[in-house]
Amino acid sequence: MSDTLQMLLDTTTRLFAELFTPADLHRAAHGEWLADKWQALEEFGLPMVLVGGADGELGIDTAEGLALLRAAASFAVPLPLAETVFANHLLDLAGMKPAAGPASIAPVLAQDKLKLEPVEGGYRLSGEAHAVPWGRFANTMVAVAHLNGRPHLVHVDAGGWTVGEQGRTLCGFPADRLDFAAVLDKARVQPLGDELPETILRSGGAALRTIAIAGALQKVLEITIGYVGERSQFGRTLSKFQVIQHDLARIAEQAVAAGAAAELAAEAFVDGFDPMRIAVAKSRAGEAAGIAAPLAHQLHGAIGVTEEYQLHYFTRQLWAGRDEFGTEREWNELVGRAALQQGPDGLWPFLTAL
Amino acid sequence: MHTFRFPSPPHSAASERLRGEVRDFLADALRDRPALARSDSWNGYDAAFSQAMGSRGWIAMTWPKAYGGHERSAFERYVVIEEMLAAGAPVAAHWIADRQSGPLLLKFGTEEQRQSILPRIARGDCYFCIGMSEPDSGSDLASVRTRAAPVEGGYRINGTKLWTTNAQNCHYMILFCRTSGSTEDRHKGTSQLLIDLASPGITINPIIDMAGQHHFNEVVFEDVFAPSSALIGKEGEGWAQVTSELALERSGPERFLSSFTLMRELALALGPAPSEHGAIAFGRLVSHLTVLRRLSRGISALLEAGENPQLEASIVKDLGASFEQDIPEIARQLVDSAPTEPSTQAFCAVLAHTLLNAPTFSLRGGTREILRGIIARGLGLR
Ligand SMILES: Cc1cc2nc3c(=O)[nH]c(=O)nc-3n(C[C@H](O)[C@H](O)[C@H](O)COP(=O)(O)OP(=O)(O)OC[C@H]3O[C@@H](n4cnc5c(N)ncnc54)[C@H](O)[C@@H]3O)c2cc1C
Fold it and tell me: Which of A194, A209, A229 delimits the end of a domain?
């Protein structure tokens, strides 16, 4: 780890710890927008952390920037930080200027498609996108839309869409339907180059959720270790019981697996959003989430499911994250088909190339 | 709380070149090896194959040249061993000597032991077995009873070792035993000895497993004499030495690749256009395996840096065993197999073989429960 990254990790974790009190997490989970907290993240430059790479504002490369997002997940940051970072990164990659304020991406569901048509002086963007994360609070949308069947990256300002049905994720965060209707000038529409996959929003989003799962799972492990060391029953702390120790070992194993998946996802994100490695990582991390979250709740007893106790901010993040941008079913199918297409002799070479 | 160290595996062009060479060699050497034999993986014994490996410089890869080694990196060694496993190569003859006995001698052995033994291991000519477990001492290794009593010029050994893999084919055993005190002293008073299995007084009795195979044994010592020069390291330091050996025993890719032949046969049975269900289940196996490989290659980076990855190795071994035990359970639900059908004959044979071996995956080399105890200690819970 570089010294710059270590320093940034130290300062951002301090920042997150100060900014996000249990009361803030509670407000955000009930739909409130934490405007002052967002302001603080912007002042620190975090939304721009993947802009300009090592020459950017914070002077760290993309992989290191993603490590900061993993740390943010360990604090259950209840704002569209990952989405904004991703949107700005995409604008930067496409040679467009990143925007100020919270941003998000659309469409996020595989079946939603947006359309571009040439009009006088630019393009008309139209279509619906469902379950757009933080849709109602975003100032900017970075979208993928098709012009004559070819995918383009599109930069849309607020006003270019109306918010339809308002939904909530398992964390309580917005997931809204957006109805796009905008006329954009040419500079805001760029073809996705050959090096970027058409599924970039879904792959990139899946990588970010993988990274978030790793961060949240690490926190779940830490909270649970702390709890079993304090809670006593039958005259001993829970941590002294062998079954409890073994369940914690299982949580730790899943945290380790999710951590490795997150690194794989980060490498693939940097490497042109390679969908295959991201698929592997997302499905493995999703499975880790599904194994570890119930174990952590079991070891907490009843207190763990209360709104007041902090565990659910992280376990809900795990359960939401594993479903967003593709479930294990979807990504494993992609991996399975690709692997089986190699035939039995091609299987091992396929694996070692991942 | 300990944070687990899993460095990102480096990409090395040298290792990938080597991978190509190893693949070519294996494609040729194993051309006629049937699937069932491949599924024996690191239980498959073939001295001629081990010698061929030795002559290519693929045993003792990281050891000093002075002892017949090749001074290559841990990553290059990793490539060779994982290619062997994936291909189902018969590596049993040299496997243990290359993995742990040789490195143990390199670290703690006398100059004479190193000079006389290591070059033979490197050539693929000299095979080792592990003498740790006993009838009354399994997970609780510190309770060993086999005793090497100091006598004029050496030791007189009495006791029984159990589950000794491959003893029937080996030249030497590294014996973990008591040289002073009693079992109540636990780790104190234990030592490691280099035992020539041709010594008078040693009887090797085969034990047949439920698949009908003979790989492990009972090894009985009756007044066996071992010279003082057989002592490895220091007398009484056996426990510290044996635990460093266990890190090597637990950290390799054999802890999640020993059922790879079944995955390969499953790929064949599912074909290139699988059902949705088949693709999802197979993709899941690939995802798990990819993450395990990544973790395991991270451990080889720790080994390369001279660190002791015993905690990290326990995590990978436990995850790996569960993964491998899943493979037959998943495979049997995906393929309607009939052992009489030519198209699924090999699949059925490999499935049956893997199923009967799967219970040992979470026993050999340290049980699931023992590994989770080690991890819990790493988490600061014990
Ligand atoms: C295929 C195979 C090859 C082997 N090869 C070798 C070899 O070459 N050389 C060698 O020395 N040994 C070898 N072994 C032996 C192996 O190391 C032992 O099987 C292992 O250490 C467990 O010991 P045990 O079988 O006596 O089981 P036990 O220790 O009696 O354990 C029985 C069960 O009780 C559990 N248990 C034990 N203690 C505890 C505890 N404190 N807390 C919770 N649960 C506990 C165990 O996890 C296990 O589930 C081999 C074993 C197998 C299966």
Answer: A194
Total tally of structural domains belonging to chain A: 3
pTM as predicted: 0.97
Range of the domain at A177: 99-194
The one-character DSSP state at B4 is P
Domains in chain B, number = 3
Torsion of CA B27, B29, B31, B36, to 10 degrees: -110
CB B299 within 8 Å of CB B313: yes
Beta strands in B96-153 (DSSP E): 128-131, 147-151
Assigned domain for B1 exists: no
B8 assigned to some structural domain: no
Q: Are residues B149 and B105 in the same domain?
A: no
Which of A249, A337, A343 lies at the smallest CB-CB distance from B376?
A249
Measured in angstroms, the CA of B15 and the nearest CA of chain A are apart by 12
Question: What one-letter code names the amino acid at A138?
Answer: A
Q: Does any domain span residue B60?
A: yes
Could you tell me which of B161, B127, B104 has the C-alpha nearest to residue B50? B127
Phi, psi for A269 (deg, rounded to 5): -60, -45
Do A69 and A181 fall into the same domain?
no
Residues within 8 A of A (CB atoms), B 68-87 only? 82, 86-87
Residue of A256, A264, A334 best to disrupt the B interface, most CBs of B under 10 A? A256
pLDDT band at B244 (very low <50, low <70, confident <90, very high): confident
pLDDT band at residue B115 using 50, 70 and 90 as cut-offs: very high
* pLDDT-derived band at B338, boundaries 50, 70, 90: confident
DSSP 3-state of B293: helix
Residues contacting A129, CB < 8 A, separation 6+: A106, A107, A108, A109, A112, A114, A143, A177, A178, A180
Q: In which region does residue A31 sit, left (phi positive, over 0), alpha (psi from -120 to 50) or beta (all else)?
A: left
